[in-house]
Design a protein that fits this description.
Helices cover 56% and strands 5% of the residues. The chain is built from 15 helices and four strands. A two-stranded antiparallel sheet has the order 1-4. Helix 9 packs across helix 13.
Length: 308
């Protein structure tokens, strides 16, 4: 408990310092941080000025690529404690430092409005990562998911029935369809800022978005990644793409079908050595607990060998 409190204080202080260094601070009575970005991302005027990279998108792209490469290395190494440090770094740098870019609620909408800018590359990097390794961005890079996981206290966890989680998982797909259909029909972003911790990362927000963050911050303590598993539209998209990932966690011939991986998986993605790639966050909990070390990332064409 004391360690978790120290971690939370360190994140807040480090995030505040980074936000200040990147141009944060008071911007009026009700708004903190940098001013809202103008809605002219893909307009002919913006393209005519040659503004492909706007609003520090080249910096964001470099950071995103660096974090994705680091995540890929850690996923193959399978070191859960190093991954925890990676999550903290993502929260501090991508969350507080960069304002939590690639906000999961607006990401699937803004790609249509910003297709003429570098935002398209930002959007596609996690998608390509999902084609290669599955939900690598969700499990290692996304600051919104990372902070939810860091707040989670496993000994206080509330276990929901599998049927309830499966029903909640479908909700995020409905949210994805609605948001895409709406932006295509109206050309505007809906529920902008309604991602957990967005007000915290930007040091601002409305009473509604702050309340939304507070609710999911509390839920994160007892439910593992509650927003990611129930409402996140970008996570839903990456879940769909990860069905065709080239590499995924598989059990080898040393697997004894003991069920330990199923019990320790926080995302409910394991079942007797078989992984649901749409839910797996590549966290390494199953491989770390597997006594015969039968679990590791394997190519999708490499079938599980029969147990001896």
């Amino acid at each position: 408990m004391r360690r978790g409190l120290l971690l939370a204080v360190a994140l807040l202080l480090g995030g505040w310092a980074l936000a200040q260094s990147f141009g944060g601070g008071f911007e009026g009575e009700a708004q903190f941080g940098p001013p809202p970005e103008p809605r002219e991302y893909g307009s002919p005027q913006a393209q005519a000025r040659g503004a492909f990279f706007i609003h520090r998108q080249e910096l964001k792209l470099g950071l995103l690529l660096g974090f994705m490469v680091g995540a890929g290395v850690l996923a193959f190494l399978g070191r859960p404690w190093i991954r925890k440090a990676h999550l903290v770094l993502a929260v501090v740098v991508l969350g507080f430092g960069m304002g939590g870019f690639l906000c999961p609620t607006s990401a699937v909408q803004n790609v249509f409005l910003k297709a003429g800018t570098g935002y398209l590359l930002l959007f596609l990097v996690p998608v390509v990562g999902a084609l290669l390794l599955g939900r690598l961005f969700c499990g290692y890079v996304c600051p919104f998911g990372a902070l939810q996981e860091l707040l989670h206290v496993r000994k206080w966890a509330v276990k929901l029935p599998d049927r309830a989680w499966k029903a909640l998982n479908w909700v995020r797909y409905l949210v994805l369809v609605y948001l895409v259909a709406r932006v295509l029909a109206q050309g505007t972003v809906a529920f902008d800022g309604f991602s957990p911790f967005k007000p915290l990362f930007t040091w601002g927000g409305t009473p509604a978005t702050i309340s939304f963050t507070a609710v999911f911050a509390l839920l994160s303590v007892v439910l593992f990644r509650a927003f990611c598993r129930s409402l996140c539209p970008y996570g839903a998209l990456l879940s769909i793409v990860s069905r065709w990932s080239l590499f995924r966690v598989r059990a080898g011939e040393a697997c004894r079908s003991c069920g330990l991986c199923t019990r320790v998986c926080p995302a409910g993605a394991m079942e007797g050595g078989k992984v649901d790639a749409t839910e797996c966050l590549l966290c390494g909990a199953c491989a770390g607990a597997c006594r015969p070390t039968a679990l590791r990332l394997r190519p999708f064409w490499q079938r599980r060998a029969s147990a001896s």
